[in-house]
Structures are given as structure tokens and as C-alpha cells.
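The material for today's practical consists of a large collection of protein records. Getting from the letters to the C-alpha cells is the skill we practise here. To make this concrete, we reproduce a full record directly below:
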Amino acid sequence: PDEAAPVETADAAPATEAEAEDVSATGFIRPGDTVPDSVTAEEGDIPRDSYGRPFTYAFLGKELPPFTGTMVNGTEFSSSSLYGRWTVVDVWGLWCGDCMADAKYVAALSNAIAKDGDMSFLSIHTPPNAKRADEAFGRYGSVDAYFEEKGYSYPTLIDTDASIRDMLEIAWTPSYLLVAPDGTVQGFRSELAAADGTPVKDFMRDIASVRSSYTPLEVEAE
């Protein structure tokens, strides 16, 4: 789990019957979705489930901030290239156990998206934070070594110092963002491995639902 996950204390009040029915934040979240009534947020934080997963995302329904960086293959990347296509952005790290649990699902997700000519997939590998940048690659030492061992291959941007993570206000890894052709974030979800059902198929169905009903907001002329 992320280091931002809340920590339970020994003197916590006993859970009520309603609170005992733990609500998990592993589903697909769209702009306008409401946080369950039973969920509260710690002061200065966002609403999370008992494991720490967020029930919302800072840029949900808003334009994703522009960012640039270097891909794992050495090429330069600009987020301006995301415009014009639906894109799933996966923010993760080799240091993150939940990300590793999602690995096989991410590989399947990237393959499913590759079959859709109107979609693209972008992976952003990030450390937990700037102070722990030296922990970013875990036992593998690099994303290249990880891909070689697992046989994976998908577009990956390397966030060396967590600056992209901070810019995008990522509060949990792994986080998955559905970015519309106009650059706005129209969907968010966390761990695939922790969800019920068939995570990749369900995610692709959620994406299809958004795409079929989405109408870009008209920008007023100055």
C-alpha cells in the first residue's frame, strides 16, 4: 500500500454496524460520482477506504496538467500527444506491492487497448516520493530489467523524482486515469487485483460506457 494510507490506532472507536460493512474504493469512478455516506476523510486528506484507496481524484472531470519526461526507451514525451485519443494512464512503481499484484492485469489491459485504434495506453513509473527516489525500482534496478524478466512491453514514462506524480496529484499507486481526447480525466480507479469480477473486462466495459456517452464541454469564445 501507499505510504499515505491511514493507520488504525488501538484506541479507535468500535465500528458501527454500518461501518462494519466496509466499502472498497476499487470500482470505476466517474465525474460527479459521490462518496459513500459511510466514508469520512481525515483532516487534510481525501476520502479513502479502510485500506487507503481514494474514492476520488483531484483532476476528475478536469483537464490533466501538462507534463513532459523521458520514456523507458529514451525518447522524449509530452502530454500534448495524448490529445485526440482516449488514453488510459497507469501510474505505478516497482517498489509498490499492490502494483506488482496488478502486473498481469496491466499487461492484459495494455494488450486490449492496443487492439482499439482509437485508444492508447501510457504507463508512468514513479517513486513513492522525491525523498525515496532511490527506492523506485525495487529489486529489479530498472523498468527495462523488469520488462525483460516478465516479458512485458508497453509505453512507459519514467518519473525519476516524483515530480510528475506530484503534478498529477496522485494519492495512491496504482492509479488508473481515463483521459478523453480533449485532455480531461473522465474516469479513475485504483487496484485491479483487489476488485471483484473480471477486472480488465470490467474496466474495458466501463471505458466503453464513458466513450459512448461522453460529450466534450464546449469552450466559450473570448
The beta strands are 68-71, 76-78, 86-92, 119-125, 156-158, 175-179, 185-189.
